[in-house]
Write a structure and sequence with these properties.
Blueprint (H helix, E strand, L loop, with lengths): L1 H6 L4 E4 L11 H11 L2 E2 L4 E3 L11 H8 L3 E3 L8 E4 L7 H8 L1
Parallel strand pairs: 1-2, 1-5
Antiparallel strand pairs: 3-4
Helix pairs in contact: 3-4
Length: 101
């Protein structure tokens, strides 16, 4: 938490949305960070709009293709500094898709 607070200029926090029908396990963590660091939890605007197969055995390119177009953010994040929470970062395909789409 101290790292987040010392970073300054953080506008919000989100986690990579779960597939439809799955439990959002990061929500309590995001709520806690949001309150303690006085930053907005933007996860309510961030959705996974369609299911996709597991990424486990896919190459970097296959991972990018696998999740193309499955995430949507209802709002505008232009010019904002956002902390993105993800459980696993292997190739960066999810992060690229989330913020480049």
């Amino acid at each position: 938490m101290k790292r987040i607070q010392s970073a300054g200029a953080v506008d919000g926090i989100v986690s990579v949305p779960t597939r439809p029908g799955r439990i959002e396990r990061f929500e309590p963590i995001l709520d806690s960070i949001s309150k303690e660091c006085d930053i907005e939890n933007l996860s309510g605007n961030f959705k996974c709009i369609s299911s996709y197969p597991t990424q486990k055995s896919l190459s970097s390119m296959e991972r990018q293709e696998n999740i193309a177009g499955v995430f949507r953010y209802d709002g505008n994040l232009s010019g904002k500094h956002i902390i993105l929470i993800d459980d696993i970062v292997t190739t960066g395909a999810t992060i690229k898709n989330v913020f480049m789409s």
